[in-house]
Specification:
This protein is about 70% helix and about 0% strand. It is built from four helices and no strands. The longest helix has about 40 residues. The chain is elongated. The relative contact order is 0.09.
């Protein structure tokens, strides 16, 4: 009689665990598809929002307490100064938080990514206006 209850408990537990595992897999799969579709359908500057750093530009600016880049231009001296100050304040050896330190680092990287992409866009526009002129070396 006891073996019957034990068997039922094992079977019911396996069913519950199996259903929970299947549901978790479905949610992870849906989340992955959503991230891929968001990265594929958005523009080049916003395609890096969640894929590379996990931060949006607004979040990064709020973390470092700087103004968002206007047309790709930002005061990098102020950004670097705030980064260094906050990064040093949150040093784990001084009683700070490694989590906050990593968030601060990712925020700086996100702002630098935005500025770099804006600079590349300006360069490509300038090249288009000027015309493509390949570098030809006649002495080779």
């Amino acid at each position: 009689m006891a073996h019957r209850f034990i068997t039922q408990a094992v079977v019911v537990g396996a069913r519950v665990f199996g259903r929970a595992f299947a549901e978790a897999y479905r949610q992870a799969s849906a989340s992955s598809r959503y991230a891929q579709s968001a990265a594929g359908s958005s523009s080049s500057s916003s395609s890096h929002n969640f894929v590379s750093s996990g931060l949006t530009l607004d979040e990064a600016c709020k973390i470092l307490n700087v103004k968002p880049p206007q047309g790709g231009q930002v005061n990098m001296e102020e950004t670097i100064e705030r980064f260094k100050r906050l990064f040093d304040l949150n040093d784990p050896t001084k009683g700070g938080s490694f989590y906050l330190q990593s968030k601060i680092l990712r925020a700086r990287e996100r702002i630098e990514l935005e500025v770099r992409e804006a600079a590349e866009a300006v360069e490509s526009e300038a090249e288009i206006k000027k015309g493509w002129r390949p570098k030809v070396y006649k002495d080779r």
